[in-house]
Specification:
10-stranded mixed beta sheet, 3 domains, ABC3_permease_C, transmembrane, 28 helices, 14% strand, membrane, alpha+beta, 929 residues, globular, FtsX-like permease family protein, Macrolide_Exporter_MacB
Length: 929
């Protein structure tokens, strides 16, 4: 029975009063937060973590989002404008100079300083600002670095470049380096920088930094900068104007072909009506806003699912107190308000902690982000107050949402059951199960349609609907799985029973694990499929790990390199053997024109595809109708071997002993290829070119054509028929043919040294490649080395980051649910102790409870993630199933690395629960009634 004094103590405050106000509820919540410090800290941490992440992102974004004045300083230093005049037609540009178009043919016409000053107002002063790239000797060998032609001593460069130490170059024999360039070259102030050919050298006089780009840069005086292939593309001038350059003046200069970046226009942009139609801003990106809103919705759902069980813990532990409130006249609204006040108080605490920590982390990591991530300096220390206010409101609102379900559950609780310690109904309502199934089906349909239409908003919306549906289905699924406890040992049986009995807390925890794991797995599968699709489009030029050392002829009749017979290939092979783990180094030649032909004329041999094997739609790929695309896709003659390669060769002339290094063919396949070369034939990778063991080669001489090749010209090209063989093993030649000396002689053409085919026992390192490059350039500046390293796969940590985040969420959710089960199961543990259960039972019970939550959530999440990603990839593949030219399909790959992390997490959660749980069983005295 209820003690009468307790009844009278609550009665005056509740009966006849308007009810518990929000202020009173907040005071109760504050007191409860102090009493249950562990649970409160857990909830605050759950809310503060995403707030910290959002605050860090907002503050970092604001710091790196340059203000107009800062952007102008990065673009033009202290000048009034930066201009380029390289066109002979009228220019139309946007106000910021980010884009422009040129009337006419847009031919590039470099202007001199005198010509530019003649087109500017009197009193103007300009200095050149050039950008290109060149090769230099580095600490490891030879490397290509960005070069700038700029007088850093001029006041106009203030803000554009910062002198860190020393002084700027004062003559043609001096340079300044950025810190990264100095590190790569291995030269500091007073050191020497050498060109790749060692012909020129410069003295380092200072260290400089370009705030807009912290990458490797070598700074010269404008007139001393080495000429690079892109030097005219980066030619600009800093303009010190007699007055601010207005938008009207910019448009006038556009008429003469100048592109102008004006400081005054940066600071005072013109209205949209004065901007050319093609360069007007389209306003807010609706898709970006939609994606941001949906991602925020997913984040809120995840936080609610994580923090909800913690509020359920509080409501469960205060069940008797809430029952006393109800027994003394408290209405369901009063009970809801008390529990919701917990969400407001803890949400505010989480928001405050997350905001302070997020801003602090953003400020502390700013230098690291500048150097290692963004590679540019931030505009200043600032924190985006408007965004922080929104984040704080979001945190408090999320706390309220997380407490919403426990609040309504507490308000509907049976007062008698609460006061006597009995449990109420634990059955799941069928309407929630039906609603969950419907939402899951609708979400899958929306995701599928969005993927088919490549609408990312629809895909994310479908994912949210599907996750909500699975969340609603989780309680019923928990109850179904709990029936398996009948055949399990004691500890797992009790764990499954408690999980089903406390569904208000265990179901959200399982759903949180499921949502995190599903998102991680789904995105991991998609990213893996994209990488494998890119890899499928890669065609290795030679077997992986092997290398080609090629000689580049000058192509000019006056070029002394073409007067002789090319490099000493024996010496080249010796250098390769000294630097690489060489198994074999075989010289190779290339096709050349007959003796007496000018060296600037190109000659070659190209396989001709038989007319009956040509694709009828080969020249109309971009204009075919849907019906013709389907026909082309079904025609075996139109099968395409598209792709790209980082290493390759043209019509290389090789001996039979070079075929293993070029093709990687083995066994009888290699023997037949060697026989074809020995018989004066060719080796290819495409069997369509081979007819009855023969291949037709077109004999190309640049003097035969005037630059255009018509069908009639194609038919007149002379040909020669030689033996041919298409290899099927190893790495077949991609887009080229391996020729024999006999085939070249049959075409009445000549040969000249081309380079060396290097067969390695392993893939050489970058240091070894740089060292060999330096050695080859010392021998001849026209020697280049290419190592086949396969498709480039960046070290993108996204999959592991996602798996780690899913793992942390799984651990947190399992810990919360295990703590709830331990709190609710205290009386059960006392009963076990009373009947003689061993002390290890409690430890095994906690381990089992954690395993049920983490394991069930992980299994559901993996299944959901794989299902969603498979549907998305299938939809993408179906969308391109009838298109031609054929694009590689997305393979449904499994991200085993991230799955391994996710799979280990339940075991870690179980081990942690077992180690951190006291094995001593509690002995409780029965409370007198």
């Amino acid at each position: 029975m209820i003690h009468p004094t307790k009844t009278l103590r609550f009665a005056p405050r509740l009966r006849g009063a308007p009810g518990i106000s929000w202020l009173t509820a907040l005071r109760i919540a504050r007191r409860e937060a102090r009493r249950a410090k562990g649970r409160s800290a857990l909830v605050v941490a759950m809310i503060a973590l995403p707030v910290l992440a959002l605050t860090f992102a907002a503050a970092s974004y604001d710091m790196f989002r340059l203000r107009p004045g800062e952007q102008a300083e990065r673009e033009m230093g202290a000048a009034d404008a930066r201009l380029m005049w390289g066109y002979d037609g009228r220019v139309t540009q946007d106000p910021r100079g980010d884009g422009w178009s040129v009337d006419g043919d847009g031919r590039s016409v470099p202007r001199t300083e005198r010509e530019i000053l003649a087109g500017l107002p009197a009193g103007s002063r300009i200095i050149p600002s050039l950008e290109s790239f060149a090769e230099f000797r580095t600490a490891g060998g030879i490397g290509s670095l960005t070069t700038r032609g700029l007088d850093v001593r001029d006041p106009l460069t203030a803000g554009l470049v910062t002198l860190l130490a020393g002084r700027g170059p004062a003559d043609d024999g001096e340079v300044a380096l950025s810190p990264r360039a100095a590190e790569r070259i291995g030269a500091g102030i007073g050191g020497t920088v050498q060109s790749a050919d060692r012909i020129r050298s410069w003295t380092v006089t200072g260290l400089v930094e370009f705030p807009d780009s912290l990458l490797e840069k070598v700074v010269f005086l404008p007139g001393a900068m080495p000429t690079g292939p892109n030097s005219t593309d980066g030619a600009a001038w800093l303009w010190d104007a007699p007055a601010p350059v207005s938008w009207e003046q910019v448009k006038q200069l556009n008429q003469r072909g100048m592109v102008v970046f004006s400081r005054d226009v940066f600071l005072h942009p013109p209205p949209a009506s004065q901007v050319p139609a093609g360069f007007r801003s389209t306003g807010v990106d609706a898709q970006a806003v939609g994606v941001g809103g949906l991602v925020a919705g997913l984040a809120i759902l995840e936080i609610v699912l994580l923090a909800g069980p913690a509020f359920a813990v509080g409501a469960r532990r205060r069940r008797r107190d809430l029952g006393l409130v109800a027994a003394n006249g408290g209405t369901p609204a009063h009970l809801r308000r008390i529990v919701l006040a917990d969400g407001v108080v803890l949400g505010a605490l989480g928001a405050g902690a997350g905001l302070v920590l997020g801003v602090a982390v953003a400020f502390l990591t700013r230098p690291l982000l500048e150097v290692h991530v963004v590679s540019q300096r931030a505009g200043g220390y600032r924190a985006f107050p408007l965004a922080l206010a929104g984040i704080a409101a979001l945190a408090v609102g999320t706390g309220l949402l997380a407490a919403l379900v426990p609040a309504f559950t507490a308000a509907r609780g049976d007062v008698v059951a609460a006061l006597t310690g009995r449990r109420g109904s634990v059955r799941s309502r069928k309407r929630w199960l039906v609603a969950g199934v419907v939402l899951a089906v609708v979400g899958a349909a929306v995701t599928f349609l969005g993927a088919r239409r490549t609408d990312i908003n629809a895909v994310l919306a479908g994912l949210i609907l599907g996750e909500l549906g699975l969340v609603l289905c989780t309680p019923a699924l928990v109850g179904l799985i709990a029936r398996l406890g009948r055949v399990l040992p004691l500890a797992p049986r009790i764990a499954l029973r408690d999980t089903a009995r406390n569904r208000a807390a265990s179901a959200p925890a399982i759903a949180a694990v499921m949502a995190a794991v599903a998102g991680s797995v789904a995105l991991g599968v998609v990213l893996t499929a994209e990488q494998e699709r890119d890899d499928a489009g890669y065609r290795a030029g030679i077997p992986a790990g092997n290398a080609l050392i090629q000689y580049q002829y000058g192509g000019s009749a006056e070029d002394p390199r073409d007067a002789g017979k090319g490099p000493d290939l024996g010496r080249v092979a010796a250098l390769a053997q000294a630097a690489f783990p060489v198994v074999a180094a075989v010289p190779a030649n290339e096709v050349a024109c007959a003796a007496g032909t000018p060296t600037d004329v190109y000659c070659g041999l190209t396989p001709r595809l038989p007319a009956e094997r040509e694709c009828p739609w080969a020249d109309d790929g971009g204009t075919l109708s849907a019906a013709d695309q389907r026909k082309a896709r079904q025609d075996p003659r139109c099968a395409q071997d598209t792709g790209w390669s980082s290493v390759g060769y043209g019509g290389i002339v090789a001996t039979p002993d070079a075929l293993a290094g070029l093709t990687g063919a083995t066994g009888d396949d290699l023997a037949r290829a060697e026989a074809a070369i020995a018989a004066g034939g060719v080796v290819l990778g495409d069997p369509r070119f081979v007819v009855d063991g023969k291949v037709t080669l077109e004999i190309y001489d640049a003097r035969q054509q005037d630059g255009t090749v018509t069908a009639a010209d194609q038919a007149k090209i002379p040909t020669v028929v030689v033996p041919g063989y298409a290899v099927a093993t190893g790495t077949p030649p991609h887009g080229s043919a391996i020729l024999s000396s006999g085939a070249v002689a049959a075409a009445k053409l000549a040969e000249r040294p081309a380079g060396v085919v290097v067969v390695n026992s392993r893939t050489p390192t970058t240091v070894e490649e740089d060292r060999l490059t330096a050695s080859l350039r010392d021998l001849d500046q026209s020697l280049f080395v290419s190592v086949e390293r396969g498709p480039s796969r960046g070290s993108d940590p996204m999959l592991l980051i996602l798996a780690g985040a899913a793992g942390l969420i799984t651990l947190g959710a399992a810990g919360i649910a295990t703590g709830l089960a331990a709190a609710d199961g205290r009386s059960d543990l006392s009963t076990l102790a009373a009947v003689g259960a061993s002390p290890g039972v409690r430890r095994r019970l906690s381990l089992s409870q954690s395993g049920v939550i983490a394991g069930l959530g992980t299994v559901l999440g993996v299944a959901a993630g794989l299902g969603v990603s498979a549907a998305v990839l299938y939809a993408y593949n179906q969308a391109g199933a009838d298109r031609w030219p054929v694009q590689p399909a997305y393979p449904v790959g499994v991200p085993w690395g991230s799955l391994a992390v996710v799979a280990v997490v339940p075991l870690v959660a179980m081990l942690g629960a077992g180690l951190l749980t006291r094995s001593r069983l509690p002995i409780e005295a029965r409370r007198a009634t």
